[in-house]
Structure of Sodium:solute symporter:
Amino acid sequence: MTIDYIVIAIYLSVILGVGWLGWFKAKTREDYSVAGRQLGPVLFTSTMAATILGGASTIGTIGLGYRYGISGLWLPASLGFGIIGLSLFMVSPLIRLKLYTVTQILALRYRPSVKLVGSIVMMIYDLMVAVTSTIAIGNVLSTLLKISMVEAIWGGGAVVVAYAVLGGMWSLARTDILQFTLKTLGLLFVLMPLSVIHAGGWRHMAAVLPAHYFSLTAIGLPTITTYFLIYSLGILIGQDIWQRAFTARSGSVAKWGGLTAGIYCILWGVMGGVIGMSARVYLPALANPESAFVVAIETVLPVGIKGVVIAAALAALMSTASACMMATSTIAIYDVYTAIAGKEKCSIIIDRLSTLIVGIIMLLIASLIGNVVAALTVAYNLLVGALLIPLIGAVFWKRASSTGAIIAILLGGITVISFIINDGLLSNSPIYYGLGVNLIAFMAGSLLRPDRVFKPPVSRL
C-alpha cells in the first residue's frame, strides 16, 4: 500500500499546486468568481462534467448498482438530461446577461425581497451538495487510511477548501480538467472493466445475478420519476451549474460544452451501475451498499493502480465539493451580504474570506451527516420545491409577480421540509407535494396580486 499512498499524496500535492497558481491568475472579482468568463470548449466541458458528478453520482450510484443492478444509472442520467435541457433551451438567453448568481435573475424581475429569500434557499442547497461530496471524500479516505470518519473529512476537505480559497474559479477550472481526465481514466477505463473481469465476465454475471439486475426499471418507476423531478429540474436552476455556465467565453461554448457534459453523465451512470452489479458477484454480503465502491477498489486492483483509481475517485468528489462550496460563497457575497449590508462593492479579499468561512461550515456539517444520497436528496428537494417555478416564471412568464414568487418560495420550502420530517429523507412525497404547492401558489399569487410596475420576462431582456 505504500506505493498507493505515495500516488495519492502526489495527486493531492498537484491539486494544491494548481490551486496556488490560481492565486496569481485571479486578479479581479470576476476572475475569482467566474474565471474572467474566458473558458474555451475543452476546459469548459471538463469543468462542467466534473462539477455535476460528485459523491452521490459516484459512490451513491455504485451503491445503487450493488442493490438494484444497471438501473442504478438513473441518478447520474437524470443529472445528464438536466444539463442537456439547460444547454439546449436556457443557456443562450441568460449567459449574455453576464450575471454572477442564478438568483440575480430574480432581481431582474421581482422585488429585492424575493432575491434575498431565494438566495438563502439556494445557499442551503449548494452547501448541502458540497457536504455530500465531502462525506464521500471522508468515506474513501477513512476506509483507505483506517482513520476515523471525522479525521478523513477534515483531512481531505482541507485540501478542497485550500485550493478554492486560493484561486477561486480559476483554481477550480484548472483542477477540474486534471480531475476530469483522471477520473475518466481511473473509473471508466480501469475500475469498470477490471471489476467485470473479476466477477467472471458479463456472461457469468448474467448467470448468477437475479434477472432484475439487468432491467432498466428495477429501481422502480416512482424512484426514476422522482430522480427526474429532483435532479433534472434541479440542474436547470442550480447555482453551482450556472456559475460554471457563466465562465464560458461564448453562448456556443456553453451550449455545446454543456451538451457534451450531459452525455458524459449518462455514460457515468452506466459505469456506476456496472461496477455495482459486478461487485455484487464477488462481494455478495456487504452490510452497507455505499461501501461497495471502496471495497471493490481494494479487492480488484493491484498495488499502484489502486492508488491511481483512488486518486480518480477523490477527483470526482473534490470537483463537486469545491464547486458547490464556491457557489455558496458567491451567493453569500453577491446576494445576501450586499442586500443586508447595503454595499454593492466588495474586494477579492472579502470573496476569499467568505469561501473560507463556507468551507469550515461545510466540514462541520459533513462531520455530522453520514449518507450521501440522503443529503443530496434533501438539497435538491428544497431547491426544486422552493425555487424552480419562480425562476422559470421570471424567465418566461410575463404575468409573474413578486407576490406570487415570495409566496411560492415560502410555501414550497415549508411543504418540502414538512414532508421530509413526516415521511423520511428518501421518500418521494416531498418533491411531489412541494412542487405542486410551489406551482399553485406562484400562479395564484401572480394572478391575484400583479406587480404595479411591469417588467418583461428575462428571456426578452
